[in-house]
Amino acid sequence: MELDDIIAIDMEPPRPRGIPVQDAPRILVCDDDRAIRDLVAWQMRDAGYDVVLARHAAEAFDRMKEYQFSLVVMDGQMPGMDGTEAVKRIKGDRYLSQIPVLMLTARTAHDHVLAALQNGADDYMAKPVHATELLRRVQKLLAR
């Protein structure tokens, strides 16, 4: 069985007991890799969060005009504007700057990590990520 057979785009898993979706923190997941985007979304929805997806930074900014977010999970490498530049724009915007941003990227070189953090990323995780660690970091950022 292939990953695409298991995870469909915008798949809605059963809502776990606990947080009703209207009261759940809303998370924007921005990644150009459909499998990663859907997997992260499934993990966040399974934990009770409301999730909105974007395939690239421009789409993420469109979503930020439509919704209020409690957190953004941003890929570092995407076509067009990369994640570091997107974070810089988010943190430079007076309406968006308070939203925590978790960079989730394959870029692990020290200069990439440093650039993301210097441009305002609140946390940085290298792919592949462990679901439990991702969830704990999301919880920690949302608790701020």
Give the helices and strands, then pairings:
Blueprint: H1 3-6, E1 26-30, H2 34-46, E2 50-54, H3 57-66, E3 71-75, H4 83-92, E4 101-105, H5 110-118, E5 123-126, H6 131-142
Parallel strand pairs: 1-2, 1-3, 3-4, 4-5
Q: Give a short account of the largest sheet.
A: 5 strands, parallel
Instruction: Give the total of beta strands.
Output: 5
Query: What is the CATH architecture assignment?
Result: 3-Layer(aba) Sandwich
- Class computed from helices, strands and strand pairing: alpha/beta
Quaternary assembly? single chain
Strand portion, in percent? 15-25%
Query: Measured on Cα atoms, how large is the radius of gyration?
Result: 14 Å
Our count of domains comes out at 1
Helix and strand run: HEHEHEHEHEH
Helix content: 40-55%
- Low-confidence spans: 1-19
Any idea what the CATH superfamily is called?
Response regulator
CATH T-level topology = Rossmann fold
Question: Quick check: average pLDDT?
Answer: 85
Spatial separation of the terminal alpha carbons = 40 Å
- Spatial ordering of strands, largest sheet: 2-1-3-4-5
Q: How would the global form be characterised?
A: globular
In CATH, what is the class?
Alpha Beta
Structural account:
- With about 140 residues, the protein is an alpha/beta fold.
- It has a single domain (about 20-140), classed as Rossmann fold (3-Layer(aba) Sandwich).
- The chain has six helices and five strands, in the order αβαβαβαβαβα.
- Strands 2-1-3-4-5 form a five-stranded parallel beta sheet, with helices on both faces.
- β4, α5 and β5 (about 125) form a beta-alpha-beta unit.
- It is globular.
- The termini are far apart.
- Mean pLDDT is about 85; it is low at about 1-20.
